[in-house]
Amino acid sequence: SITLSNRVKAVKPSPTLAITARAAAMRAAGKDIIGLGAGEPDFDTPDHIKAAAIKAINSGFTKYTAVDGTAGLKKAVIAKFKRDNGLDYQANQILVSCGGKQSFFNLAQALLNPGDEVIIPAPYWVSYPDMVLLADGVPVIIEAGQAQNFKVTPAQLRAAITPKTRLLVINSPSNPTGAAYSLEELKALGDVLLDFPEVLIATDDMYELILWNKGEFVNILNAHPGFYDRTIVLNGVSKAYSMTGWRIGYAAGPAPLIEAMCIIQSQSTSNPTSISQVAAEEALNGDQSCIDTMMVEFKKRHDYVVAELNSIDGIECLPTDGTFYVFPNVEKLLSRLDGINDDLEFAEFLIEKAGVALVPGSAFGCPGHIRISIATSMTNLENALLRIKQAV
Ligand code: PLP
Q1: Does domain 6-44+289-391 have CATH number 3.30.160.620?
Q2: pTM of this prediction?
Q3: Aminotransferase class I/classII large domain: which residues (predicted)?
Q4: Which uninterrupted H or E stretch holds 23?
């Protein structure tokens, strides 16, 4: 038998990708499964973006590019930060990667030494803790449950910081909860960090454009412009432009850190796909009305699903600020269902008995919940809720 590295043994495969694969396999075997597990919009990539990529192929733009991204895409990223976030960056402060996932992976690899701590509020995007572990870092989880609207408090943050803390991760609006921090809340969290100048901040703004509450999007740099030299902004085109398969994410931050991340990338993937970069450039520079179309639909589904879930005895679902997820608490429901002890068993029960695939909250560090993706048609959502109601 083959002896594998301790590194790989310390992590688990992405549970969200696993549930999607399981649902696909059951469907292929003839089972009628409604998938509410997906972490991607159900819309097609807009036509003008596809057209830019087709043109790139036909004009022979099919070779290696600079590792950190083409000049054109980096310019579009810089313009986007200026336009949407009021942030100024130079080209040497931008790194384009193969998805937002690689951006964070590069960051962890470039920043962490063995034993370095990364503070991750739970519920968290499933991949943060594992990517920290892959970099020999230590994930330090702060629990921010439903009672506090899934947001960490300044006191919790202060209590979690140790001399080994290198990084705080903020993801707002959040996968899986859909909760977004307000400017005031970010100001208060940042005030704690004023006392710990050596702690860096990663703000994962992947869902920036899928936001309906709280008015304009804000991140920690809007609340604390003075953190410019210790903050890395992560974003990408996957969610906002329905481009998950194209694999383009980007990071902006202090030049020495971006340069280090670029070295990691140069020895792993090299540049992201040349064709996808042209498509991403068009996404950022082109007509933005495609986002509005998606938003209207997501909001409609959100309102429906939240109301329906709350009408089920034992389920409590907070309305979200954005994203295409809702994250209901099902603890009371579990306590009245015989033979189902936790959210993992509940998710198993739903896929087997109701034909509804979704991700248990434990995967996000928050047991007693389930994550429902609303990135599917209204008909699917209606049928899924009917099935869930009948099953419970
Ligand atoms: N950040 C968050 C919070 C996410 O939910 C995701 C995708 O699920 C990503 C980053 C990475 O996106 P991608 O690698 O597909 O660009």
Answers
A1: no
A2: 0.96
A3: 31-388
A4: helix 15-28
